[in-house]
Amino acid sequence: MELNFDYADGQTPIDEDEKLGLKIKSISTMGELNEFEQQNIEEAVLWANGRSFSALQILSLEFIQSVHKRMFKHVWKWAGAFRVSDKNIGVPFYLIRQELLKLLDDCQYWIENDAYPPAEIAIRFKHKLVSIHLFPNGNGRHSRLMAEILLKALDPNQAFTWGRKTLRKGEDRAAYLKALKQADQGDIAPLLEFSRS
Fold this sequence. Notes:
Elements: H1 16-19, H2 30-49, H3 55-58, H4 61-72, H5 96-112, H6 118-132, H7 139-154, H8 170-184, H9 189-196
């Protein structure tokens, strides 16, 4: 059966070979996929909220992959595995590990040297994660959860509120994509503002 996926603006299309990794064979539409993914993501959010992690724990390849796996393990066989093909966004797939290691070093430096306030460090980390585009799909949702986990480690008194927005379509999604594009151009302020609104 061929799956009927209609992608929203800014979404990464799933390759045909990646669709073969779908664990729930009864899914046939994007709406059904979104529903199953959201249930899995909510489980991962509860897991993350119920624990405390140090920045050192968070800033590792293994932790980053494990969070993605927790978010999508009930839906995709490739959950937590770096992509092995190029997409409409992100670095070439063979540079993922190298670029991610550079980001982890940069983020560790930002933290150790108080280069930015905690929320800005988390947003810069989130933006770079989504720019590298580590996984076949789920990168935006993964990077937002990673930012929330990192911010909690850096300053437990702060939190992002974007989780209350509907980022799948409509004005919220358009504003989010606009803020991401501005961050791509070096202006992180709109993305930071969006995360707190």
